[in-house]
């Protein structure tokens, strides 16, 4: 392939599918949006039509209190768009409902990953490698220094701390969509079956996960619980609540944070995190490069993140790649 495909165009506000008059994860309201997953930097309200998996649509409904124009697509299902374009939704392994979108037009195949990871996650379907001509990937952790440890190791750290200080609680800051539920599900998998206490802002999303069949065990609300009862227990809250007044209702919390950025010690210090847990819902450097090798596209496009090193890696491996200048993708969900 000598030139980028003419029917698909990266625009500052998203990826445009020209013949279908549609956008992928647009950063502004559009007539027709194909949405990869429910994080706020990808899923926005106000589109005429929103084509996404049922879980993503439910998440968007919860967050934006609107479901106008919702078009559900199951994993493996193909929708026909205008202009002879078809779109197939494939698991991305990032959060509940997250999808890669395979576009097929005039015999050319393009896969847009949205955000993804390759590690097993009990709360969502696993990433599937899909051959294509153009692979449009994220690169949030696109530097060799980012190697996420096995999650079992981070869970063991958390549980060891809980056991070592039974008079305190461990307060884990985790994004309300995805990270919180994954941490809870992994604690269960590690054999921790005690009640887990939630900040009120977590409750609805956890219930939504349960509605989609993800077992999170016994969850209780901090607001309904006397302080003393939470000694020796795990409490989960949004990262923004870690340092605020709300945490005074907890018994001497050990402050923890679950994020890929906890690899960077300075970030943990800035947030006053005592127990950094390196847990990410994004591919690390090794996962990114392995995925490109497995998908083996003619060309890679990099949507957002640290693209320099990944571009260089492509050069070194005689692979074609380009960075797209997209705006509005933030690290809500690291
Ligand atoms: Zn995301
Ligand atoms: Zn993202």
Describe the structure.
A hairpin with a 2-residue loop joins strand 1 and strand 2. Helices cover 22% and strands 25% of the residues. It is globular, with a radius of gyration of 20 Å. It is built from 7 helices and 19 strands. The two termini are 33 Å apart. The structure holds zinc ion (2 copies). One zinc ion binds at residues 39, 41-42, 115, 329, 333.
Write a concise keyword list for the protein shown above:
alpha/beta; 6-stranded mixed β-sheet; binds zinc ion; single chain
Strand content: 15-25%
Question: Which parts are unreliable, with pLDDT below 50 for 5 consecutive residues or more?
Answer: none
Distance between the termini: 33 Å
In the sheet with the most strands, the strands line up as 7-8-9-10-11-18-19
Q: Roughly what is the average pLDDT, rounded to an integer?
A: 94
* Rg, Cα atoms, Å: 20 Å
Number of helices: 7
What composes the largest sheet?
A: 7 strands, mixed
Q: Helix amount, in percent?
A: 10-25%
Q: Which class of secondary structure composition applies to the elements?
A: alpha/beta
Shape: globular
What is the H/E string?
Answer: EEEEEHEEEEEEHEHEHEEEHEHEHE
Ligands (ions, cofactors included): zinc ion
Q: What's the number of extended β-strand segments?
A: 19
Itemize the secondary structure elements and their pairings:
Layout: E1 8-11, E2 14-17, E3 22-24, E4 32-34, E5 49-52, H1 54-64, E6 70-72, E7 78-81, E8 85-91, E9 99-105, E10 108-112, E11 134-139, H2 151-164, E12 170-173, H3 179-189, E13 196-198, H4 203-211, E14 219-221, E15 234-237, E16 254-258, H5 265-270, E17 275-277, H6 285-295, E18 299-305, H7 307-316, E19 320-323
Parallel strand pairs: 3-4, 4-5, 5-6, 10-11, 11-18, 12-15, 12-16, 13-14, 13-15, 16-17, 18-19
Antiparallel strand pairs: 1-2, 2-3, 7-8, 8-9, 9-10
Bound molecules: zinc ion (ZN) (2 copies).
Residues 37, 39, 42, 94, 115, 333 line the site of one zinc ion.
